[in-house]
Write a structure and sequence with these properties.
The protein has helices at about 30-40, 85, 105-115, 135-140, 140-150, 170-180, 215-230, 245-255, 260-265, 270-280, and strands spanning about 10, 15, 20, 45, 65, 70, 95-100, 120-125, 160, 185, 190, 195, 200, 210, 235-240, 255-260. The chain is of the alpha/beta class. Bound molecules: ligand RRO.
Length: about 300
């Protein structure tokens, strides 16, 4: 199998230990779990999304385990500003703080709390099941641009995580770029639902949720491909990645780095295992691979 050159990489203004990051929402709620994922071979980590006020999230059930994926409607549970103390000890490490808000002002307010600690921000403009947040803002390119600009003013690397639940993801990517984003991340979960035939009602407490895991990998590849065609800033791939070959495919579609989420739940050592297959001495420079499927 094709192998990449090991070592540090600079992506979207952030120095990463390698091309692999922990995606937002998985093991990202404590400083200890983020440190453990970094120690297990991730080149960077993204925290659970943090917002302007503490929240317990949606009523349960919040998760449905499927054959080829996971359906969740956690509902943005988060400790808000208390999370600053939680990750202070990780200052200087490649920790990207995921931020959400309902307005550009809320995005910049939350980001400012972490400005001394974070290696960068990932703006959640893509959660598919949170009224007034996430994709509710991120489906509107003007709002994407405004929220992005409100955070890039702080002067730290700012990535914008986009929703696949739109007709034209490229227009949202271009809006992020116009707002000064250093990278776009594709994709968040796909809006989805399951119904219990026994109970004759939706399984999730929130009725709607977001689908992640292997089932969404082809959608993520297509979105990365579309964004690479449209944007000049780096694209970071996310969605259903679970093997070294998936990482290479994402890179060929146009990803400069790749986030892994749901696969970590199946295998907490996934970063170590993927790295062992992905990297080797004499390996190829990733730059020659990124976007090669477009040529
Ligand atoms: O917390 C959630 O329910 C959640 C978030 Br913030 C997100 O961005 N994507 C998702 O599927 N769930």
């Amino acid at each position: 199998m094709l192998r990449l050159k090991p070592g540090h990489v600079d992506v979207g203004g952030v120095r990463l230990g390698n091309h692999l990051l922990l995606a937002a929402g998985i093991l990202g709620t404590t400083g200890a779990s983020l440190a453990r994922v970094l120690a297990s071979g991730a080149g960077g980590v993204v925290t659970k999304s943090i917002g302007p006020a503490p929240s317990d999230g949606h009523p349960g059930p919040c998760v449905v385990v499927l054959d080829d994926g996971l359906l969740n409607a956690m509902g943005l549970p988060n400790p808000s500003s208390d999370f600053v103390d939680e990750i202070t000890s990780l200052k200087g490490k490649p920790v990207i703080v995921s931020i959400f808000g309902g307005t550009p002002g809320e995005f910049s307010e939350v980001a400012a709390w972490f400005a001394d600690i974070a290696a960068g921000f990932e703006l959640n403009l893509s959660c598919p099941h949170a009224e007034g947040y996430g994709a509710a803002l991120g489906s509107d390119p003007e709002m994407v641009e405004a929220c992005t600009r409100a955070v890039t003013r702080l002067g730290l690397p700012t990535w914008v995580k986009l929703t696949p639940n739109v007709a034209d993801i490229a227009s949202c990517g271009l809006a992020a770029e116009k707002g000064g984003a250093h990278a776009v991340v594709a994709i968040n979960t796909l809006k989805a639902m399951r119904i219990s035939t026994g109970l004759r009602m939706p399984v999730l407490g929130n009725r709607y949720g977001g689908l992640s895991g292997r089932a969404i990998f082809p959608v993520a590849v297509r979105c990365v491909y579309d964004l690479y065609e449209a944007c000049s800033i780096p694209v970071i791939g996310c969605g259903g990645v679970s093997s070294a070959d998936d990482v290479l495919e994402m890179m060929m579609a146009g990803a400069s780095a790749v986030e892994i989420g749901t696969a970590v739940l199946d295998d907490p050592l996934v970063f170590r295992e993927i790295s062992e297959h992905l990297y080797g001495t004499g390996g190829e420079d990733a730059a020659s691979l990124v976007g090669c499927a477009h040529e």
